[in-house]
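Q: Sequence in, structure out?
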Amino acid sequence: MHMLKRTPLFEEHRKLAGKMVDFGGWELPVQYSGLAQEHQAVRTACGIFDVSHMGEILVSGPGSLKFVNHVTTNDASSLSVLQAQYSAFCRADGGVIDDLVVYRLGEEEFLLVVNAANIEKDFEHLQVQLAKLEGPRPLVKNESSHYAQIAVQGPLSERILQRLTSTPLHEIRTYWFRQGEVSGVSALIARTGYTGEDGFEIYLSPDHASRVWTALLEAGTPDGLVPCGLGARDTLRLEMKYALYGHELTDETNPLEVGLGWITKMGKADFVGKDFLTQVKAQGPMRSLVGITGLGRGIPRQGYEIYDAESNRCIGKVTSGTLSPTLKKPIGIGLIEKSYEKVGTQVRVKIREEFHEFLVCKTPFIEKTQIKTGEKK
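A: Exactly. Output:
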């Protein structure tokens, strides 16, 4: 039997009666009190998430900037020290290997935070690219086991986290970070996240994760902070139309057709996938990633086919879908033929052999209200 990996907070989830599931080989809580309640807490107050399963790859030494810029689509040279950016790794044929967040720790030092299921694949890809490098080769190390990661998300996240740190959080803009301490524990405190709300991601030693998790729960519970599982993490990002690897992003999709042109900097020096993406940009992508909203009760799920409303010709597939806890109606993200991308276009989704009516809609599905200004995710 294959043993599931556990984060340093596994026992804390047990104490809180988290419902544990297999998530890409990790045993993680899908929910605690209930998905709708956890989702609502993040939108109105604050939620705390264990994201320690994420991977951390450190690139350091001479040539680091040049290397990071070569393997990612965004422009790492535009980052100041202590600034972060959303980015992607691509294959030579433009397919997305992973999406990631790049943290610039120093002039020639970067922390690449990648998806848990892709840690080995990403590290292998970086090794292959490293071997081709001319000039100084930076040190590329998989440091994932040295980090726990806790996300605190929601409009009250700054107020709650500030009780446990002397770092002036109001000075950290969106997609910037500081080295500081939380509850006496040394940590990297980043104003990043994946929910569409203001929030922080705290990187710290696994040895102290339980202590900080417990301190955050104690500090935040009076203000409505609740522990949140993978379920709420998914519905929150879906309402914002944030891409998820394995759903919107795969080896078969390129950044330009899934709305990630803004993190694909064609003007910079050569990067992996640039030639192919230059062609895609010149011709225009054939497909488009859109938001759809249901007129009935049927919930679209990943893999369901999307059809032309008139001819019932298949025009694409649902990549993610749910019943939106905020809107109380079915919403989905779909990759479809570009000619159908206009807001208001009627389409049909085949749900258990029946056609259900949907409309292509404006995204994000909900308006951002509490987010501080800064670089968008």
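The first strand starts at residue 19 and ends at 23.
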